[in-house]
Specification:
The chain is of the alpha+beta class. About 15% of the residues lie in helices and about 50% in strands.
């Protein structure tokens, strides 16, 4: 576990506060996954989103460098039709972990591999939300 970030925004990209449900699984290190008894589908609350990463609230203390696979349904209320909802599955790496107390942790992650389409969808959402 790490201390709180020194600056409010360490990301290169704009971020947007959100409250989406996120599902994740620990891919590496496998020993952490076994030790914590983690499954592939752990529910968490996404707190902010950018085209380079995401922050979530979870019950698990995940060390920096942990490799995750995250999934979420991205809903952009500014669009209509089929473009309004998008399923995203992205590999991410834990960049920070802050103990919030009461068994909750804020995990900051950076995306390892995000498609251009997903990146554009997130940027458009943030632009319209601000």
């Amino acid at each position: 576990m790490e201390d709180k970030p020194k600056s409010k925004n360490r990301r290169r990209s704009q971020r947007q506060d959100v409250a989406f449900t996120l599902i994740y699984g620990v891919k590496k290190p496998y020993a952490l996954r076994v030790r914590l008894g983690l499954s592939d589908d752990i529910d968490a609350l996404m707190r902010d989103l950018s085209d380079s990463g995401v922050a979530m609230i979870t019950k698990f203390d995940l060390p920096k460098g942990t490799q995750l696979h995250i999934k979420f349904n991205f809903i952009n209320l500014f669009l209509t039709g089929q473009e309004r909802s998008r399923r995203m599955e992205i590999a991410a790496e834990v960049a920070s972990c802050v103990d919030l107390g009461k068994g909750n942790y804020r995990i900051g992650m950076c995306f390892n591999n995000i498609s251009d389409e997903d990146k554009t969808a997130i940027r458009n959402f943030i632009k319209r939300s601000q």
